[in-house]
Amino acid sequence: MARYWNFSAGPSALPEAVLKQAADEMLDWGGSGMSVMEMSHRGKHFTQICNEAEADLRELLNISDEYAVLFMQGGATAENAIVPLNLLATRPGQSADFVVTGIWSTKSQQECQRYGKSNVAASNRAETVIDGKTCAPGTWMPLPNSWQVNPEASYLHLCSNETIAGIEFADWPLMADLGAPEVALVVDASSHFLSRPMDVSRTGMVFAGAQKNAGPAGVTIVIVRRDLIGHALPICPTAFDYTNVARERSMYNTPPTYAIYIAGLVFKWLKRQGGVAALEQANIAKATALYNRLDRSDFYRAPVHPFARSRMNAPFFLKDGSLDDAFIKGAEQRGLMALQGHKTVGGMRASIYNAMPMEGVQALIDYLDEFEQANG
Ligand code: PMP
């Protein structure tokens, strides 16, 4: 059996130990005589699986009881609608602010506009100069002290890791420091969820599609402060009203049971690795090694300004774009898969989530050296 190094942005590599355990338990989970896929979501076995997943996630991210943890569906794209449907009416102005730093935050704002008003608090869509260096649009991030937050907004949306552009906000701001203590910070953390410690207590809510760092596609993890629940707009579908989902502990309707089970196995794997602080150290080492190699010569170009670079998604270009196809072909021959950049930007992108070991990153670095030597 050959397992390749999978650099896909998502769905993406899962820890091998998790896949093996799932395989072992496929036909009979814990003596239940059935697969998790076949169980009632209301039965004692699945209730145990779901409760453990929630407890482990709370432990990993130090989530207090002030927050509800919900397992929902529809991915982060549906959440772009579910968030405004639930949170716009938490304050009378029914408007939301957005930090626009790439395709995902742009989509979030566009979706919000279907249900209420929105305002751009900050954006990286223009060129700027940092440390005397001109940065192209989309290759830098606006620091929180430059954000113009409307203090009357219901919430401020931040995509803390733009998966396509490869831009990551290392720390989440305190809204009081931005002169807007009443505004709830809402974070789309989909593509770096659980890759580092995250201060949930600074937020009104955090959401993440699971299919990068937390599990398979199909479950969206929603962590929402309880005082923000109970304000859904009348048009909000009942299955998406946080009031119903929180009251029924994610069982208002049939949840994506198998995806929750796998996410639960990933949470246990993360705990065995030493938790998110240990994962962060490993992720720093992997990202540093990769970006150092990309920066070593001008054969490759990583366009994002170093202070804004994502540890999870590293976009890069070959100086000579006519070599792109040969680069991808050679990579695949060496078992380095899914390195094509997003269709909207071209070039390459290496996604190196929690489940990608240093060994896989080193294999990519060796190939980058080899390809440059052959073609440079
Ligand atoms: N937000 C971010 C940051 C993402 O990376 C993605 C998916 N790549 C989405 C939202 C959309 O997620 P989904 O496809 O699960 O709806």
UniProtKB/TrEMBL annotation:
Pyridoxal 5'-phosphate binds at A76, T77, W104, T163, D188, Q211, N253, T254. Transmembrane segments: none annotated. Binds 1 pyridoxal phosphate per subunit. Pfam families: Aminotran_5 (PF00266). One of its GO terms (cellular component) is cytoplasm. Its cofactor is pyridoxal 5'-phosphate. GO terms for molecular function: O-phospho-L-serine:2-oxoglutarate aminotransferase activity; pyridoxal phosphate binding. Its main location: cytoplasm. It is found in: Cytoplasm. The keyword Amino-acid biosynthesis applies. The modification N6-(pyridoxal phosphate)lysine is found at K212. InterPro entries: Aminotrans_V_dom, Aminotrans_V_PyrdxlP_BS, Pser_aminoTfrase, PyrdxlP-dep_Trfase, PyrdxlP-dep_Trfase_major, PyrdxlP-dep_Trfase_small. It comes from the Bacteria. Homodimer. Belongs to the class-V pyridoxal-phosphate-dependent aminotransferase family. SerC subfamily. Catalyzes the reversible conversion of 3-phosphohydroxypyruvate to phosphoserine and of 3-hydroxy-2-oxo-4-phosphonooxybutanoate to phosphohydroxythreonine. This is Phosphoserine aminotransferase. It comes from Jezberella montanilacus. The gene is serC.
